[in-house]
Design goal:
- The protein has about 425 residues and is an alpha+beta fold.
- The protein folds into two domains: about 260 residues, no CATH class; about 140 residues, Conserved hypothetical protein from pyrococcus furiosus pfu- 392566-001, domain 2 (2-Layer Sandwich), CATH 3.30.1760.
- It has 13 helices and 21 strands.
- The strands form five sheets. Strands 1, 4, 5, 6, 8, 9, 10, 11 and 12 form a nine-stranded mixed β-sheet that branches.
- α4 packs across α6 and α6 crosses α9.
- The longest helix is centred in the N-terminal third of the chain and has 17 residues.
- The chain starts with a strand and ends in a 7-residue tail after the last strand.
Amino acid sequence: MVKFKPFKAIRPPFELMNQVASLPYDVLDDQQARDAAKNKLSFVHIDRAEVDLDPSIDPYDDRVYQQARQTLVDWIEDGTLKKDERNSYYAYAMTLNGKRQIGIVGAASAADYENDLIKKHELTRAAKEADRIKHIDVTNVNSSPVLLTYRDQNEIMDAITAFCDENTPDASFTAFFGVQHEVWQLPESFNRLEKIFATQVPAFYIADGHHRAASTVKVAQKRRREFPNEGPNAEFNYFLAIAFPQSELKIWDYNRVVNVPIPDNFLAVLERKYHVAVMGQAKRPGRRGQISMYWSNQWFSLDPLEQPDQADPVARLDVSALQHNILEDVFGLHDIAHDKRINFVGGIEGLEKLQSLVDDGEYTVAFAMYPTTMEQLLAVADAHQLMPAKSTWFEPKLLSGLFIHDLAKLKKD
């Protein structure tokens, strides 16, 4: 069973949350981060502190992390951020296109991650980990939450949903792609949920934020070496997370665009594995296994001639079939996590984005996927297997800056 505890959050006053909140650090490119930094209260000043330094400075320079730490300290001193006086959970709701999903903000256990009670479904990359390890180590906080999920537990969500339905949120605002964000600080009586998680929730699953989780656990391991007399309940042994039950989350399609030479007999090659049909207009795949492809100013539907191995949870994924049947066998793309000839487009950007990338000549062909399901994600993690890179895209995105978790014991130099 998992540990998921209330904690003393560092956060903006509720009335400032809409000004401080920012998109996650890892979905913003350099220019988007600098544009966001025009708002002096945007959390990018901490999460991407290079925005306050000369553009010639490498974003992984030591000065960037020191700048982040200094901004954090300054904001706590001037009241932009404050630390709660009591341990509490928060309810956090996001509403997109009329669908509300509610999660619980708390602190998850590094030990649970190490003992595989927090299950993973994708590999992490050392370079991406290194950045967040240093950011966490120097700032001494978890500044961006990990998105966790778990199989539905009615006692938890019935209590949270009833409270949110009956009480006005402490903060409510609309930001970034029209998503409504609502925050409730839960009464102290809700701290009883810690016992329910510890007795009735056997595992968490990382939905989004594998690098954040891996990085904060490595910082926890470092702190244990630095502070050997601290016990397992030391705050640095926990990390910021927002947990949503499986039924509250929706995975969007995560689509592919490829810049490769197209063989002259391309359609004939595809017909070895797929039934290929011309579509009169752009349409998303309508069922599992089907792929929508844009090439040569035309949309096609691809329906597999054979079904994958149903006993293998990874082989059953549509992205796995695309990877094996087309990206590898036709184009020779074996390392999609690093190969610069392929890029990935979140489904929220629509089929129009895929078509424009091909029509503009940046890429030669695009593939729109049927979304991976939550049950598929859990099945892969339960089997201790890994999905192909970029198999899931979650919307809406958890915002950064609303909640910060203090590790309490600043690193020893």
